[in-house]
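User: I'm curious whether this sequence folds into something compact or stays loose and floppy. Could you predict its structure so I can see for myself?
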Amino acid sequence: SKLTSLGQLEMTWRSRVHFHPLLVRVLHKSRLRYYGKPEKKLDMPYQAYFEVADGSGMMSMVLWNSLCPEWYNSMKVGTVLLLEQYAIKTSYPFKTQPTPGDSQMKRFATIEISLNVRDPPTKISIIPEETVKPEWGLPEVKYRFITRSELDDLPNNHSCDVIGLVTFVGRAERARKREHGEDFWLYRWAHAIDGTSDQPFILELFATSQPDVFEHIHPMTYLVCTQMRVVRDLTENPSSTIYLTTSNESQIFITGWHKGQPYTKDTKVKNFIQWTKTQSEADQMKKTVIGGYYPFPRPPNNFLKY
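Assistant: Here's the prediction. I'll summarize afterward.
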């Protein structure tokens, strides 16, 4: 059928009601958002953002309401989609923006693709990776993996991806989203090493929309975290309190989930796997810790400083 591109959509969307089908690849995926309120009677008040791209550039795509439970888990980073009968809306200005792996990619920020059950009822098809043709010109998923030795030189809020061997995982903890509010964020701390430094990555992992992964992070698993943000305490000793925290678009993967993920082709991931083959599992096991209370950043040594 006749396809359109994201670039053509941006130029012609105001003058059209019906749009030609789109062929895009998912590059980023946000966590699932629940926006239900007691007074609003919506059956499935869910929403999820994706960043999708074709040869012309990248655009946001929003999955609404009952389409979320049906499609959210199937739309993985790297999935190729054929979209028919979708709507185009002006972009929501306050949404979070993931950092693209390819800094050269054009971004269409004025509009977004809206996928709904009606008005119009969107038709979504997933194209199996083995049938994707090179002539479609779809971009590959690119990452920004860093090693632990590179972390100390990165600025606050820098976006990156990491892979490491888990040596510590803390218990799940809760923090209030707002003071005096009843909603909580669920998070846990983890340490992961990659052989490039004596220090581990210190990771603050908030529960994403992957409970099956979040609950099963154990020592000795290979952990991949994408779209992490660098957090440094710029006030006192910057190097002592550098850690990484999840963002709205972070994805987390552990041993058993890596097969077929696009990052398996990344050079730094391959280097890490080579390093793990030189390690003795028994030696690493002795250094691992699980659970317990983990105060971080650490309080000062004496009360006067505190």
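Summary: The chain has two domains: 6-136, 148-305. The first strand starts at residue 22 and ends at 29.
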